[in-house]
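User: Okay, second chain of the day. Same drill as before: sequence in, structure tokens out.
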Amino acid sequence: MRDTFSRTLYQVAKADPKVCIVVADISPAGSMQQYREEFPERFTNVGVAEQAMIGLCAGMAMRGMKPFAYTIATFAIYRPFEQVRVDLCYQNLPVTVVGIGGGLTYSVLGGTHHAQEDIAVMSALPNMSILAPCDPLETEAAVWACARHPGPMYLRLGKAGEPVLTANAPEPFEFGRARCIKRGAGTCVLSFGLVTKMALELTAKIEREQGGQVAAYSIHTLKPLDREGLSRILAQYDRVIVVEEHSVVGGLGQQLKALAFESGARCRLHAFSLRDEFIHCYGSHDDLLKAHGLHPDLLYAKIFA
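Assistant: Same drill. Structure tokens below.
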């Protein structure tokens, strides 16, 4: 995703001279080099000064630019939170805050680098929109959507090595709409971001053990949430499963449960999220997810207990 972001931003910048990027002591990998060489006046590294990064982007936006603010997710939103809230959201400026390493991606670096409650925090901000693509193809579409968006955006990305999951998706990426990436009936799995890979592994396991075809959806837009589309999903399927790499508090699962209550949905609804705690487990990304209870075998056992 990181490299896809860099390559796509270069294409966006070629098409729109108002697009620029400000980074805080991090560069979006080697693929940003072409951007830096061709558009040096539209690339700024402020160093370890995330508040300055957001303030600078706000000033650029007020002068007609379309800035992207880029660094590790925890430092992109938590450290400069006041600037994000007041400089960007209060003034409804077209700045995209790019958080690299959403969720538990920076596994071995510990809780200081884990963005496990970022969607809840950013969802609470008026005017803020949130995109969390599930693979490189959705990342490409998301960057273009951010460049066209008229207000502040939080773009939650992984890091590197993510597989392509949506090459054969029956529906296109569209900002603000839940996207079917695999057809099915009876049961469907909803997810977003990196953990969508696990969600698809879960669908495959259910199909092997239970038969039939399980549908899968990428809920790439977390705000504004596609309430109409999700209401249809709740009415269409007998069983709906949410798998998310985000805290149980303020995530997709909690919002979907509220929507199910409001819409009178009669489906069986299962929601699996990160625990509302800092788990002091140091290992791989998969190790941390499993410590939070997120693994296809563990999820399957809970669904069909």
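The longest helix spans residues 196-210.

User: Thanks, on to the next one.
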